[in-house]
């Protein structure tokens, strides 16, 4: 049967069979508790202390006897129909009581068009961008939301549906959404000066030529994309007025030793420290930040939010009861991204 919440723990089960010799729960390492299921009658069982989460993504790692010896495979929960697509494949999902998907996912939405583009600049490869715009707005000056990891944000977090639904509900004015494709993600999204200048300079100019930009540009992203969105926003580019960063990878040596062997850790941590050490800004930004309260990036996000406020930026920082995944980022778009955009753009009437 699917996992069940019992008092202070979650009970996971996996069906026993003659060839299964061990079963382990595969879930985020920040979740406390044993991962090893025990054989109880005709079921493998695990009582996991209830995590302080609204939902939990997981799989099982199953060890079987094969004609050639032991073999391991990682599988979905065969008794749980609730699954989610992630950047790393499918996961089974345990939803806690009270969890609900955002209402805007199924709300009426305005129709739109998609236009592929390429942003030329200092990077060796052009940056592909797909621009979504509400139908009937060709040539009209509109606000712009620039999204790093854009295709993933759309496929896994429904960012275009978010914009289209909020426009239809008159909660946000008509605007364009530019989905930036992460061709060389690690190299570009790790504080690369060439990438930052390409996006903030030639990139915004090219997007303005495609569709006139009205009002402050807002740049957003998650994880390394959240870091990159902030670094783009902090450049001296007057067109950019807002940043929305989700679970930003603001690596610091004192918090993120587990990341120290990452190829770009040094470059990221140096750039992060420069931002944290900045005591004032001549160009305050409206910055929204969300992060899972239990995830590894929580501490460095708290430090970054405090530093940005100290420097004079208008910062909202919210911790959510989920972890480092696109569903968590999707669920936090409203009201947190909504408010950043309304603060900068007004509503449909404003």
Automatic annotation (TrEMBL):
It holds the Pfam family Esterase. SUPFAM superfamilies: alpha/beta-Hydrolases. PANTHER family: ENTEROCHELIN ESTERASE-RELATED, IRON(III) ENTEROBACTIN ESTERASE. This is Esterase. It comes from Knoellia flava TL1.
